Amino acid sequence: MTFLKRRKTTKGTEEGPKQQENEQPKIKPLTGPVAVKHITFLVGGLMAIFLGLLTSVYVATLHENDLWFSTIQEVEREISFRTECGLYYSYYKQMLQAPTITQGLKELTYDNKTESRRTINLLKRMNIYQEVILSILYRILSLQRYLEPVYFYLYTVFGLQALYVISIYITSWLLSGTWMSGALAAIWYILNRIDTTRVEFTIPLRENWSLPFFALQIMAITYYLRPQLKSFQCWSFTLIMISTFLFCVTWQFNQFILLMQALVLFSLDCFDMVPPSKVTSLYFIHVVSLLLVWILQFNNSMLLGSLVLSFVLAALVVRHLQRNLKSGGFVLRILKLLLHLVVVFSLTILTNNTSKKILGLESDEHIFKFLKAKFGFGATRDFDAKLYLCEEAFGLLPYDTFQRLLHTLILPSYLLTLVITVIIAITVAVQNLRCSSYSSLCQTTSIKEEGRIMLRPDMAYNLIHNVLFGLLALSTMRMKYLWTSHMCVFASAAICSNQLWSLSLKAIRLYSPHWVRVIRFAVPILIFIYLYHEFWPKIMTELSELREFYDPDTVELMNWIKSKTSKNAVFAGSMQLLAGVKLCTGRTITNHPHYEDKKLRERTKQIYQIYSRSSPEEVYSILRLYGTDYILLEDSICYERRHSRGCRLRDLLDIANSHLVILGNV
């Protein structure tokens, strides 16, 4: 078991109008509102860069202070990359150790050390192009003399945190119109670090590579959906395309996140909150990005059989066939909308099931088994589904999360703005449904006018995005990182919004442009003062706490394996420990934590019979089937106390094998 113990003591040019002959050009200095606008933009931009870099330095410092990473042994550094993190980092290390880049790529595409007695294409199976590109850059740039490979990897991931924070900063700025909201979003992200990111202790995890690009994509979409957008429209569309592709290529769960985003766009389209042409364009980006990743991953069938592709296809086909969806009276439009929903979702399920049967796809079936069991659609004895159900990370969002969010004032700010914005959204949606495509009723409704001012398409997108990802986070704790960072954006943007305060003051008959300006900036300033007073001493205390990595048992195990066993030896054990064996020793392993393959899941269940009530002869035959030379047994599994009865690994195996029946809820 691992312990952390306290240490012992350019110049731009601007082309003006064409000058008449012999006329001296006149240089007009920037004055008045134009000068103020340029200065504000400069200050806001510099603040975004500063807070982004500050976040990177902050998490890097916490990582160093927690592990004393700069002084521990290489094997200890590698052991600190736990579970699947170690597996991913091992391929970066493998590429660097290869004689040439070509040889390294060949070893990845014909790998027989990650799963014994089975040759797999790692570039097809896993999202490890970031490790490949990083290792190639390290070689090409000749950084060996200046920077250790591990630090090049660490600094890249921590550097992406700067991109993450800058993206949420700009998104909030775009929504509110003031950079102050961006600063508040960034500060909230930093102060709520426990609930917004886990990058400092799970560095190679796929989400730490992909979520910064997802935040960048949301920023670009927010700009793209701005009303009456003319300048930089092509630029924003290109940025959406690039960021969506990078998000997809760096995380295996990209299809499920894009499905949620497609549902957001679908909802906005149904209620006329976003122009249909822009929705279609964003659908197009989803499809193209997934197809590009499908090509890069050697025709990975899991992408072609994804729900998001089936949903986008169904939504576009049904909308084309049901062209009169947005015409008629209120009741008729409600009926048409209900029919539209039924047809789209039915066609999605039909298309998805058909494509999976044609492709023979079973890689993601464990996810649907887990969801079915989680939401009460029948009990299950399935080992994989129960393995997820028994993990705290896949349970409901715990109560202490709300306590932490309440302490930083983000939760009350978020809930207040969410309620107000949802009311406006419902008003706008009802008014849109009452108006046919040719009716002028909406133009004469004052509530509708105010709703359009407050609920611009970009704000509507971020609202629905927050609601759907919030529901996802409430149901599954591990998904909270997709929600909490955007919560910072939405709450800060609303607090600094001119429209929100205008509507609020009008509702209580105290509206005045002067009061709107005062409150709009006074409230965030007061929040800044509170946050500084409450959290600055805590941050300083946190940064002064120095610990070090301490896991002598695992270090001894890895050193023994390297010195006492053959390089061709095969090891069996838990997924988590074997990932470390693969990284630290380079030995062949039987199974690993990258669970998105049916054959691997079956193999893991069989290997885990070493902890079940199966007979020794049966266990021995299984181990020999996979060429096992050594078994790694762990006391933490044999004498497990972390989980309750029925959720311990040995219980899950005995239930799946019908060796044990647990009555009651598990």
From TrEMBL:
Sequence ranges of Basic and acidic residues compositional bias: 11-26
Any GO CC annotation of this UniProt entry: nuclear inner membrane
Compartment annotation: Membrane
Membrane-protein topology: Multi-pass membrane protein
Entry keywords, A to Z: Glycosyltransferase, Membrane, Transferase, Transmembrane, Transmembrane helix
Region (Disordered), start-end ranges: 1-27
Membrane-spanning ranges: 39-60, 150-167, 173-191, 203-225, 237-268, 280-296, 302-318, 330-350, 409-430, 459-477, 483-503, 515-533
Domain of life: Eukaryota
Keyword Transferase tagged: yes
Compositional bias per record (Basic residues), positions renumbered to this chain: 1-10
Keyword match Cell cycle: no
One function term, GO molecular function aspect: mannosyltransferase activity
Record InterPro entries: Dpy-19/Dpy-19-like
Entry's family note: Belongs to the dpy-19 family.
Name of the protein: C-mannosyltransferase DPY19L3
Organism from which the protein derives: Scyliorhinus torazame (Cloudy catshark)
